[in-house]
Specification:
2 helices; single chain; five-stranded antiparallel sheet; Gyrase A, domain 2; 88 residues; alpha+beta
Length: 88
């Protein structure tokens, strides 16, 4: 099953949230990556995968408990999206 959660694509096997963030220029991409790093350190939680290019960042969040996406996973996704909203 795949559906959307506030711009995030929800995937079931394995349970993940995926989103691509697009930026107009590299400076915005870099600022987002730096802010994401700071957020991850603050909450002691890191995305399962980050892939990026000059003007985009793909983020995948794995289920914290490994089996089911939780409210905690969704809150982490919301905080990441808020970071992108500052620079888009």
């Amino acid at each position: 099953m795949t559906d959307d959660f506030q711009g995030w694509e929800r995937r079931d096997k394995p349970p993940t949230l995926f989103r691509r963030f697009a930026f107009a220029q590299y400076a915005q991409t870099r600022a987002f990556l730096d802010a994401l790093s700071a957020l991850s350190e603050e909450v002691q939680r890191h995305p399962q995968n980050i892939n990026f290019g000059t003007t985009y960042v793909n983020v995948t969040i794995g289920a914290a408990d490994g089996d089911v996406l939780s409210t905690e996973d969704e809150r982490f996704a919301e905080r990441i999206a808020a970071l992108a909203g500052r620079g888009e």
